[in-house]
Design the sequence.
């Protein structure tokens, strides 16, 4: 996937990223993590958490040079939105 392409929820990367998020990452999250960004390498299932996308992605890219990364904002149904934020339980 090139830099100008966006993963849609029906894409394999998006589906795998959501599956890894719910199975591996979410059980360890707390209310203090709400709003942070999780970067997940969908192939290795390695992940990092940061206050924004840059802070989450850089350490993961340093560990996994060819990472296929899916981003997820903790406690929300979307990474970015307009208007009221679509929240979900942590």
Sequence:
């Amino acid at each position: 996937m090139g830099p100008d392409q966006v993963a849609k929820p029906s894409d394999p990367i998006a589906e795998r990223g959501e599956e890894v998020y719910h199975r591996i990452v979410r059980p360890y999250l707390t209310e203090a993590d709400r709003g942070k960004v999780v970067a997940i390498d969908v192939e290795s299932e390695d992940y990092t958490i940061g206050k924004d996308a840059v802070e989450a992605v850089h350490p993961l890219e340093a560990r996994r040079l060819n990472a296929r990364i899916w981003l997820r904002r903790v406690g929300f149904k979307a990474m970015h939105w307009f208007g009221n934020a679509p929240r979900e339980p942590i």
About this structure: Residues 12-73 form one domain. Helices lie at 12-25, 53-63. The mean pLDDT is 88. The first helix runs from residue 12 to 25.
